[in-house]
Design goal:
The chain has 539 residues and is α/β, with parallel strands linked by helices. It has 16 helices and 25 strands. The mean pLDDT is 94. The protein binds adenosine monophosphate.
Length: 539
């Protein structure tokens, strides 16, 4: 039809161009493996990224659509790869370095990666994968000393690869629906599965992250990207950050709480993202060694439920806003986010924290619905529970080269998460379907119980799992990690829980452990915990 708008492809190349054109002086700060700091501007990054794009074409002979993997921490070279690989039509495939050797090998082979960019600090691990990596022709080493010792064959140094390339590059014609990135799920059940992101989905997702109901990022912000670049592309922050024109801070391998607090303090970070485990550690560090962080205004948390007690600790004690978000590798990841709305400000503060502890409302561009066991769509009444289904422009419509029955006939993705939506549109996740506890025919939500236990001042972490029971088929067990040597009185704790829970929902068994086992991306690994307690031996 005549008279319509222009149609310019939504690509990550246009994000790179925008960043260089409008914010060339903005900073990208990296903490190197040796602890020294690297700082350069968007413009420096742009020049090196285009050199890399040239090198991928000229030296490595990468063709559009080829997968190029990374095995690296969050750093400036990894950022260049995020933009440089898609710039020439390749697919940037970050590998999760916390998975097992077998899982990483499976993923490299499944993706048919042709080149892998490996950080020298990770060589001992990757060498074990390389034996069986069938399609890899070339390794490129990041942060490697000249006299590096490695069993990898056919390797070159990153700086040598890009050194004599030009800082101008002619992008190939890029269809916005072509692939630019590939991330595999962390594979807690079955083999990891790939989510293939398009230029368009990544662009739209980056805009959604910056929108006021989500992170509300602007060119006045400095973002600390704690979420690893190997986990759902650092939650899209490398793209949303540049689209906002924000300074970016990349912690390299230095992810311990003390190092993170130092970065928050020394680089003027205003917003940071991370899973709840990270925020638990940072909170403890701030309690033990109090520090003024005047610039730090907001943290984005997701990947697992943020305990209400921790939300209160950050918001009330430290004056830091908590943006609690929900998403998955399959949803790029941003799906929902929880913020207070103006009509909530009159509510008692306790109720306000309750709202933030929910997973939140759909971000524009995403739709969610709850499907009950009988297939009916649940009403938005805040109590009817079912499986959460999602659709939107940055949700996968199939897995990469794997058939799956996680998709409905009418085009929704079945998340495997269980929860409800209330009248105001706030979604609450009560469990992963596989983590639900069914006791005497009644469902018990492990997340709600964990939240209640973690509200106890002596408790650092609590994970609740099902253990087999002759009479009730399953009963909840609570595994607790304390903050110090002192343990909470279990009888008192149970008594306190009686206000909010039915008797059958309260765990009979409480065990004290040193640490809750964690998955590759720092979430409670309940599969592992169930294994530990399945036969009741450890109780
Ligand atoms: P991943 O693909 O590794 O990012 O894992 C996605 C899963 O993490 C989701 O399906 C949820 O089970 C869980 N998850 C993510 N965000 C939250 C949240 N805010 N609260 C509870 N669970 C979450």
């Amino acid at each position: 039809m005549d008279g319509l708008m222009m149609n310019i492809p939504l690509t990550t190349n246009s994000i790179l161009e925008y960043g260089n054109r409008v914010f060339p002086y903005k900073k990208i700060i990296t903490k190197n493996p040796d602890g020294s700091m690297h700082e350069y501007t968007y413009h420096d990054m742009y020049n090196r990224t285009l050199k890399l794009a040239n090198a991928l074409v000229n030296k490595l002979k990468i063709k559009p659509g080829d997968r190029v993997a990374t095995f690296a921490w969050n750093n400036y070279q990894h950022l260049e790869l995020y933009y440089g690989i898609p710039a020439m039509g390749g697919v940037c495939h970050p590998l999760n370095l916390r998975l097992s050797v077998d899982q990483i090998t499976f993923i490299v082979n499944h993706a048919e990666d042709r080149v892998v960019f490996v950080d020298a600090t990770l060589l001992p691990l990757f060498e074990k994968v390389a034996h069986n990596a069938k399609n890899v022709e070339q390794y490129v080493l990041l942060n490697a000393p000249r006299d590096v010792k490695t069993t990898l064959e056919n390797y070159i140094f990153y700086e040598d690869l890009i050194a004599d390339e030009k800082t101008s590059f002619t992008y190939p014609e890029t269809d916005e629906n072509s692939a630019m990135g590939l991330c595999y799920t962390s594979g807690t059940t079955g083999d990891p599965k790939g989510a293939l992101y398009s230029h368009r989905s990544t662009y739209l997702h980056a805009q959604a992250i910056n929108s006021p109901n989500a992170l509300c990022t602007s060119s006045n912000d400095t973002l600390l990207l704690i979420v690893p670049q190997f986990h759902v592309m650092a939650w899209g922050a490398p793209f949303s950050g540049m689209l906002a024109g924000a300074n970016m801070v990349l912690p390299g391998p230095h992810l311990n709480p003390k190092a993170l607090v130092e970065l928050l303090e020394n680089t003027g970070v205003t917003i940071a993202n991370g899973v709840p485990t990270i925020w638990m550690g940072v909170y403890d560090e701030l309690k033990n060694n109090p520090r003024e962080l005047p610039a730090f205004k907001k943290l984005a948390v997701g990947g697992a439920a943020m305990p209400k007690s921790l939300i209160i600790a950050y918001m009330k004690e430290l004056g830091i806003e908590v943006l609690h978000a929900w998403g998955m590798t399959e949803t790029s990841p941003l799906g929902t986010a929880s913020r207070l709305q103006v009509h909530h400000f009159n509510l008692p503060v306790e109720e306000q924290y309750e709202i933030i502890a929910r997973q939140g409302v759909e971000i524009a561009g995403i739709e969610i619905r709850i499907t009950q066991e009988d297939g009916a769509i649940a009403p938005r009444d805040g109590k009817t529970v079912g499986e959460i289904e999602v659709r939107g422009n940055w949700v996968i419509k199939e897995y990469y080269k794997i058939k799956s029955d996680n998709f409905t006939k009418d085009g929704w993705f079945k998340t495997g998460d269980v929860g409800h939506i209330n009248e105001e549109g706030y979604m609450t996740i009560t469990d992963r379907s596989k983590d639900l506890i069914k006791s005497g025919g009644e469902w018990i939500s492990s997340l709600e119980i964990e939240n209640a236990i973690m509200a106890h001042p002596l408790v650092k972490e609590a994970a609740v799992i099902a253990i087999p029971d002759k009479k009730w088929s399953e009963r909840p067990l609570a595994a607790i990690v304390t903050r110090g040597d002192k343990k909470p009185d279990i009888e008192e704790l149970k008594e306190a829980m009686r206000y909010a829970f039915a008797k059958y929902q309260i765990p009979d068994v409480f065990v004290f452990i040193d640490e809750v086992p964690k998955t590759s991306v720092g979430k409670f690994d309940k599969k592992q915990l169930r294994k530990m307690y399945a036969d009741g031996k450890l109780i």
